[in-house]
Design the sequence.
């Protein structure tokens, strides 16, 4: 797993990012740090135990990488291409994705909870056991994806497509699904609101 | 430290294997089933299973124990004294165990079951059926639900550190996310 070392700044409860004693908010030269991280990502085929929470990355190809046990929480990704990535047990929660691509990706045990997806293409991928709770998605395409056992609890989706998806055991509790299109998906195998009856034991 | 999540199709539960980067003694949390995939992970990482932690004794979370004990000489840690017909090392709230190089803090949060425990290792919380992404554990009555909600808010939400949650079912999450948006724990 990524390091559990806390940021050295007094009173800060965040984790220190990889190769620093501080979290991204308290790091000295953020531009230099970001440049070094981008170089590292570009040169690595396999990324393990990386924590770069809070980073801002623009116009980058993170294609065909294997990412394990890493943390990208509270980050901003603009025009970033994750095509063909294989991602396991990693955290992209509370992040912002603008014009990003996640096509042909394979993810399992990944969290995007609380993230914002704006004009992203996320389709033709496997998102197994993926946490999309509380996401806000607009003009985003999840189509042709396997979303087995993933959850969209309290998600707000506008102009979002889930065409031809596997929705078995996908949870849409407290979800605003008014802007969702489910054409050719097995939406009958997904779970929807039934008030408080839905709890772990029944899943 | 390496953490592996193993999904069991029987009971849809997550088993966690925790061990050092370079091999050595390992811990398993909730062995719902023992199959070749789990054994291969243990062996290919040069691990020896020393401890089995049980978040609660529902069958789907413990079904793999008997097979594991045929292979490894491991201790079982649980709130109750017997699991899978085997005597356990009983543990209770606030216990801190030092095993296999890790400090494991025990947090007792009943409600889903009387013996429900959460394990805190570094910045990771293994919550079993107490808390998972956007959900809380099932309960048989409203009183138990209130006990569970109160336990989560008092004992987990009071943790200020940046914590990752590995639940007994479904995708991982973070403590921060659950504080902000778990609809069953709306504290605002």
Sequence:
């Amino acid at each position: 797993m990524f390091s559990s070392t806390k940021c050295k700044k007094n009173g800060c409860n965040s984790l220190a990012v990889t190769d620093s004693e501080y979290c991204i908010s308290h790091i000295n030269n953020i531009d230099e740090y970001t440049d070094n991280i981008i170089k590292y990502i570009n040169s690595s085929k396999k990324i393990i135990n990386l924590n770069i929470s809070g980073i801002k990355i623009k116009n980058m190809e993170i294609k065909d990488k294997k990412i394990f046990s890493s943390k990208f929480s509270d980050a901003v990704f603009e025009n970033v291409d994750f095509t063909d990535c294989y991602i396991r047990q990693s955290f992209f929660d509370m992040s912002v994705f603008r014009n990003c691509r996640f096509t042909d990706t394979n993810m399992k045990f990944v969290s995007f909870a609380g993230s914002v997806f704006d004009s992203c293409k996320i389709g033709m991928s496997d998102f197994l056991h993926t946490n999309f709770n509380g996401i806000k998605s607009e003009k985003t395409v999840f189509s042709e994806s396997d979303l087995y056992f993933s959850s969209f609890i309290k998600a707000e989706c506008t102009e979002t497509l889930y065409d031809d998806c596997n929705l078995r055991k996908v949870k849409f509790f407290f979800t605003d699904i008014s802007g969702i299109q489910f054409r050719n998906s097995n939406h009958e195998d997904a779970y929807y609101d039934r008030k408080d009856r839905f709890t772990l034991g029944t899943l | 430290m390496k953490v592996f999540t193993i999904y069991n199709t029987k009971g849809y539960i997550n088993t966690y294997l925790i061990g050092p980067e370079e091999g050595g003694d390992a811990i398993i949390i909730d062995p719902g089933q023992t199959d070749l995939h789990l054994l291969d992970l243990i062996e290919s990482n040069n691990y020896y299973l020393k401890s089995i932690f049980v978040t609660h004794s529902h069958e789907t979370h413990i079904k793999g124990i008997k097979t594991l004990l045929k292979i490894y000489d491991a201790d079982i840690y649980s709130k109750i004294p017997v699991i899978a017909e085997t005597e356990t090392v009983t543990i209770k709230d606030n216990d801190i165990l030092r095993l296999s190089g890790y400090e494991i803090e025990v947090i007792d949060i009943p409600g889903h079951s009387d013996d429900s425990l959460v394990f805190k290792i570094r910045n990771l919380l293994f919550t079993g059926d107490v808390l998972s992404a956007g959900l809380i554990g099932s309960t048989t009555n409203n009183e138990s639900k209130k006990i569970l909600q109160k336990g989560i808010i008092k004992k987990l939400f009071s943790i200020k550190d940046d914590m990752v949650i590995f639940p007994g079912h479904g995708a991982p999450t973070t403590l921060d996310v659950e504080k902000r948006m778990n609809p069953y724990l709306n504290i605002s």
Observations:
- The CA atoms of residues 109 and 152 of chain B lie 7 Å apart.
- The longest strand of chain B covers residues 2-8.
- The mean pLDDT of chain B is 95.
